[in-house]
Amino acid sequence: MLRTIFSNKSYRSNQALRLICRLQREKIYTVRPVTFWMDKILEKENKRPLNIPADQYQHKIIQKTMMDSYMEEYLPFKSSPALLDEYITTAGKIRIGKILEDLDALAGAISYKHIDTFTPGAPPLTVVTASVDRMELLMPNSVEDLKLSGHVAYVGKSSMEVFVKIETMPQYDSRIVESSPFPPQDFLTEPTPNTVLFARFTMVAVDSSTGQSVRINPLVTQNEKETRIARYAEDCKFRKRRVGESTLDKVPPTTDERLTLHKLYMNYTGDVSCQPSGWMEETKLQSVLLMQPQDRNIHNKVFGGYLMRRAYELAHATGAVFCKTPVNLLSLDEIVFKKPVPVGSLLNLSSQVIYSQQDSFQVRVTAEVKDVEASTTDVTNTFDFSFAGNGQRVPQVLPKTYAEGMLYLEGKNIEYNYGKIYIT
Which of 368, 351, 367 is CA-nearest to residue 407? Predict the structure, then answer.
């Protein structure tokens, strides 16, 4: 089996590309662009595609195993000052937003590895991130060497459930890593004592020319443990569908939820001495970003991991202003990528605190993309982050309007209705 290289960051990509020139047998899987943006401009100006027409390709299907899609990436922060400098925060910790960006890139690379049929002239396929399940974070307070790894855990007709985890590496040695078997014997993405994050990505493959979904390589399990993981991944897929059908933007609030709002109304109406620390409308922050070619993916759309990083950084700022103290990320709730974000568009990120209790609170970030030429605005993502108040009591925040009341209930449901995501 050929050893594969996951190309993501500029620091690591340059090293990988130099290595690929020496070892032509190795293959790079990446979601980063492999062509120049100027080629895209020329293609638009000439009004003709630079790629070969899709009807010249023959589609082929082969069976794949979980081991076939396994990929890993090491972040040796302790031994690489240049790499650490890309990730370090002002407080000397690792930037969570950059880690989220890496996770999305790794999930995309794993997906491309799974759909690869090793056939010259294979049809051009596009893999997009459809959704990301809730993530629970236990990131270390100090700088540690990290290992990112994952594989495809379940395959439908055109979609894949990709499991990815992050582990600390207390005894990391690059020489041992390079000489060790690949994939390792314990490659399956299951929690270990060193696991600090576990994530599930839903990826979808579409035809690059037509945009229609296409059938991808099926997944074959090789033992009982892999079968259990595949069954768990399938259950997660259907659970997301059921949860999505019961959200407050689709169904009215339950009796208990209506009583919760009524109780708030009774407690904070007419009694001047009994007022909240702040109202939801007072916690809003906003940022507007012009999407540049440097943040595009291999399909010339804005990289999904970049959107996750930007949303997290705005949510973190919102939480810090709200608590008036540094805050710590606890979890990131499910993300659904509704629409792609084109390069050149304006991205409007709006955030606000939607729920709080004594030691934690929820921040929602809504991403809207505006096409200036077409004068259209579409919601592309909604991000929900859970934060802790760094050991201090979190201020209370309450809604004023019915719309804010629905947000308050959604934040409360996120806090109480979700447990750990690890495989049991």
Answer: 351
